[in-house]
């Protein structure tokens, strides 16, 4: 059995939804439908988590082998205005810890963006974090996990921040487009 660890925040956890509707669960179903029965999805999403929290939290997930790491942290860093350099360092450290224990791990970085309505350079700096990290770490890259979901009231819960079941399906498809190349 090969493990795919989805390490993220409320978007990964499926905030406000039954676990079966979170995009990692949808991808487990897709893997089975496509004949990849030897892959097990582990959802390590924690609502509210930041990249600094992830640095400390990753250790407990290293007890089981990780064949593919889907790193989907950073949205809360952006919402809190944490400096892009700090976010970059934390994401790099998470990848370093996983590769130290599992050198053959394949890594997918899920890109996040700050809405353009946020003034100043921060949104642009934040957006670059994920693309540059993917290049530096030789990782696969999902440009924007919430592409087509953010700002669409039909794909989000009433809070306007968290995807509903339909929004999770869109996120699953964005992830599948990259994940299938690593199987």
TrEMBL record:
Name of the molecule in the record: Arylesterase
PROSITE patterns: LIPASE_GDSL_SER (PS01098)
Top-level taxon of origin: Bacteria
Provenance organism: Pontibacter saemangeumensis
Organismal lineage: Bacteria, Pseudomonadati, Bacteroidota, Cytophagia, Cytophagales
Pfam name, any one: Lipase_GDSL_2
Boundaries of every SGNH hydrolase-type esterase domain copy: 6-169
PANTHER family on file: THIOESTERASE 1/PROTEASE 1/LYSOPHOSPHOLIPASE L1, THIOESTERASE 1_PROTEASE 1_LYSOPHOSPHOLIPASE L1
